[in-house]
Design brief:
Shape: elongated
Strand order of the largest sheet: 2-3-4-9
Mean pLDDT: 80
Order of helices and strands: HHEEEEEEEEEEE
Strand content: 25-35%
Low-confidence stretches: none
Number of strands: 11
Distance between the termini: 97 Å
Structural class: alpha+beta
CATH class of the largest domain: Mainly Beta
CATH superfamily of the largest domain: Rieske [2Fe-2S] iron-sulphur domain
CATH topology of the largest domain: Rieske Iron-sulfur Protein
Helix content: 10-25%
Amino acid sequence: MNEDADLPVADQADSEAAATVPQADPDPESDAKGLSRRQMLSRSVAVMGGAIAAGVGVPAIFYIAGPAAEDAGVAEWIRLGAASSVEPGRPTLMKANIERRSGYLTTNEELSVFVTTDNGTEFTVLSNVCTHLGCRVRWVDEQDGFFCPCHNAVFNADGSVASGPPPSPLDEFEVKVEESQIFIKGAS
C-alpha cells in the first residue's frame, strides 16, 4: 500500500521535494577537505601542546639524566708535588686536593699519602689510611714503620702489616713521574 496516498496533496509535494533535495552539510563551517573549525582548533591545540611538552621535556630529561651519563669513576692522574721533595730512605707525607663529582654534587677532598724512594727515581706511594678501621697512620722513625694510634697497629716501611689487627697492608697507588712531578692514579 502506498503511504503517500493517505497524505493530503500539499504534504505529498513537500515529502517528494524533501526526498529529492540533497541534505545540507551538518557543519556549515567545514572547509573543502571536510575539516571543521572545531577539528582544526583541536588539532592546532594538540600540536602546540606537543611542541611545548617537547620544548620543556627534552631539556628536563637531559638535566636529570645528564650526570648519570657522564663518565663516573674514571681514573685520573693526581699531581702530588716535586720528586725532589722526597727524601730517599724516609717516607714523606704529601697531600693533594682533589675534586669529586657525584651527579650535581661537587666536593673537594684532601688526599694524604706517603711517598718513599730509595734511589730518587723510583717511587712507592702508600695510603695513610689504616686498613683496619680507617684511622690515619703516621711514620715513626724509632719503630721504622707506620703506626696507627687507634688499635696500636704497626705497618712496615713497605706497607705490610707488622703487628695488630689490620687485615691487609696499606693500599698502594700506581705512580708515575713526569717533568720532575710525582703523579698517582686515583678515581675521580
